[in-house]
Amino acid sequence: MRLLRCYGVRSSARRQSAHSVTDQQLVRRLEIEADTLEEVLPTARDVEAAAARISDWLITTPVLESEVLNQRAGCRVLVKAESLQHSGSFKIRGALNRLLSLSHDERRAGVVAYSSGNHAQGVALAAKWLGVRATIVMPKDAPQIKLSNTRAFGAEVVLYDRYRDDRERIAADIAQQQGAALVPAFDHPEIIAGQGTVGLELAQFARRRRLPLDCLFVPCGGGGLVSGVGLSIKAAYPDCRICAVEPEAYNDTAISLAAGSRQIIAGYPQTICDALMTPTPGAITFALNRTLLATALAVTDAQAIHAMAFAARHLKVVLEPSGAVGLAAALAGAAADCDCVGVILSGANVDLDRYIAVLNDYPDP
Ligand SMILES: Cc1ncc(COP(=O)(O)O)c(C=O)c1O
């Protein structure tokens, strides 16, 4: 078994609680997952199968363009506004693909998920559409809009403390008690294939117009979105440079790519990008991303916030901080040497008071 090198694993004392994991347990969990990977890696065909399964339920989100953005980025920018998707993010795609892949009996037993908020809403809405009972484990400090939307879609919400509790353990216990199926947020072939359908739509748009899509910026937490999108874009544009974009405090994909194995972010750094606070890439997502990704870029919170204001002013689109990091990278000039970059706007679920404060901070973005 390969030994895992870790970048300063979190202090175990801080994580001890009834449901907490020790550093050793966490490292062992990563090693075990790494051993059983090969058979489960999804392919571009799985993304196409997912599209056939879920497309009729979903919005084909628009691809936007702005002359101001092209000038600032230094190349042509195709903006895939997935923030306009049902539930306000791409997460409904993977959730629906997973739920539609369950057997009748599995659906009757219900589903369990853990999420900082957008996956919660995606699972809750997909479950509502299919008449499936959903229980979602969410951090108690998640944005109010994410908590209230999840409840409004009919899911039961179980709160946890993101600094003390092990949400995977809590969800696994609930799943066992209820006999329910787990719907992971990113590290599952059906989830990755579902998220990949965003890329399929963008590739179809670009090919119809014969555009030379040579670069792509995708917000990255656990890596489900960027790996799925990477699969579908590479099938159409093999030379396209797929770039994950992370908040600088959670650059776990960047340091994992550099090390050649999954690394863990130490401590609990703060970032305004609440949906991207994932301390380590997934086993499946990293196995895909280490071959699909050209690089992983980091943006500051200030750049993400500026991108939110820019999107409001020039694209007329509402974004949450995590949904704006790909745009932030383009605005920072990271695609200036490209001909045509695709940018995924991945989510819009931001509390209104915070959003208004952002717009006030950047009156002329
Ligand atoms: C808005 C938004 N963008 C990007 C991501 C990152 O997705 P992934 O964890 O699949 O990398 C998330 C994950 O929750 C999200 O909510």
What is the overall silhouette?
Answer: globular
Q: Which regions contain 5 or more consecutive residues with pLDDT less than 50? A: 1-24
Fraction of residues in β-strands: 5-15%
Radius of gyration: 19 Å
**CATH secondary-structure class of the largest domain:** Alpha Beta
Give the overall pLDDT as a whole number: 90
Q: What is the string of SSEs from the N terminus onward?
A: HHHEHEHHEHEHEHEHEHEHHEHHEH
Secondary structure tally, helices: 16
Please give the domain count.
Answer: 2
Q: Biggest sheet, strands in spatial order?
A: 1-2-10-7-8-9
Number of strands: 10
Going by CATH, the architecture of the largest domain would be 3-Layer(aba) Sandwich
- Sketch the major β-sheet: 6 strands, mixed
Bound molecules: pyridoxal-5'-phosphate
**Structural class by sheet pairing and helices:** alpha/beta
Distance between the termini: 51 Å
CATH names the topology of the largest domain as Rossmann fold
**DSSP helix fraction:** 40-55%
Characterize the structure shown.
- This protein folds into 2 domains: 40-90 and 192-361, Rossmann fold; 91-182, Rossmann fold (3-Layer(aba) Sandwich).
- Helix content is 46%, strand content 14%.
- The chain contains 16 helices and 10 strands.
- The protein has helices at residues 12-15, 23-35, 44-54, 67-73, 91-101, 104-109, 118-130, 144-152, 167-178, 189-208, 224-236, 252-259, 283-292, 301-315, 325-331, 352-361; strands spanning 63-64, 76-81, 111-114, 134-139, 156-160, 181-182, 215-219, 241-247, 293-299, 340-345.
- The strands form 2 sheets. It has a 6-stranded mixed β-sheet with strand order 1-2-10-7-8-9, with helices on both faces.
- Bound molecules: pyridoxal-5'-phosphate.
- Pyridoxal-5'-phosphate binds at residues 89, 118-119, 185-186, 219-226, 275-276, 278, 320, 322-323, 346-347.
